[in-house]
Amino acid sequence: MYDFQAMLFRSAATWSAATSSFVFLLGMLYCLQGFRFARFLLALTCGGSGFVLGMVGGKIAGIDPLVAGGACALGLGVVSLQKLRAGVVISSIITFAAVFQYLAVRVGVYPDYTLISGAFGALVGAAVPFMFRRSMPVVLTTLQGGLIAIVGFVGLASRLAPALAETFISWSHHVSLMVPALYAMLVTLGVSVQANARQGDLQSGGAGLQAESDYS
Q1: Taking the mean position of all CA atoms in its chain, how far away is CA 55?
Q2: What is the average pLDDT score of the chain?
Q3: How crowded is residue 48: how many other Cβ atoms within 10 Å of its Cβ?
Q4: Residue 135 has pLDDT above 80, yes or no
Q5: Which one, of 19, 34, 149, 166, lies nearest residue 87 by Cα?
Q6: Which of 99, 160, 161, 177 is the most buried (most CB within 10 A)?
Q7: Poorest-confidence range of 108-117, 184-193, 207-216?
Q8: What is the distance between the alpha carbons of residues 100 and 7, in angstroms, rounded to a whole number?
Q9: Per-residue pLDDT tens for 138-181?
Q10: How far is CA 4 from the centre of its chain?
Q11: What is the structure's pLDDT at 126?
Q12: Nearest 5 degrees, angle CA 80-CA 82-CA 83?
């Protein structure tokens, strides 16, 4: 089973300072203010995920991966923009599948079972939007933003403090739960900040009202 964390960190270490800063700030926007821009951020997530899935599917089917990836990205992105509920469900399935599989790898689950963990996560992701409907924009953007921000941090640290980045990457490889623990703290912070901001907007008539009406 591929160690996607190591692959992402190695890739991020080659990014420019501008790219790393953009990715880090985008992750923090997702994490701390995502509910205000849920329609666009979830569409971005669906489009990006669709591109990756389309490339993989295209390679398996013998279709040009870029064409297949672009078509899937466009399709999922447009659907998510047009129908926020559909975007939430699609994004939830992808997000929970990825998080469950990632955690299974980090805790040392036998490789053959990590795909089962991902499939179970997808089932959970398909169910929770119907159980906790109004909370999902906050939950999803926080889960996604935490991952994006950590990868962006690694890239930024590689440009500004290479020794810090090397230490972080090395420790993350040898201490399997270090990054998941950091991720959990970011998610907790993001959910707390967004929940308070959302409640304040609902009481004062702020931007959160539009997000609520879009998803009602």
Answers
A1: 18
A2: 86
A3: 17
A4: yes
A5: 34
A6: 99
A7: 207-216
A8: 18
A9: 999 999 999 999 999 999 999 998 888 888 888 877 777 888 89
A10: 13
A11: 94
A12: 65
Between 136-160 and 178-204, two packed helices, what is the crossing angle to 10 degrees? 130
Q: Could you give the CA distance from residue 209 to residue 19 in angstroms, rounded to a whole number?
A: 32
The closest alpha carbon to 88, from 34, 51, 163, 11, belongs to 34
Buried b / exposed e across 79-95, counting CB within 10 Å, b at 16+? bbbeebebbbbbbbbbb
Classify residue 2 as exposed, middle or buried by CB count within 10 Å of its CB (0-12, 13-18, 19+): exposed
CA 49 distance to own-chain centroid? 9
Amino acid identity at 80? S
Q: Which two tokens stand for residue 65?
A: 């991966």
Question: Amino acid letter at 83?
Answer: K
State both tokens at 37: 């821009």
Contact (CB, 8 A) for 213 and 40: no
pLDDT tens per residue across span 11-58: 888 899 999 999 999 999 999 998 888 889 999 999 998 898 888 888
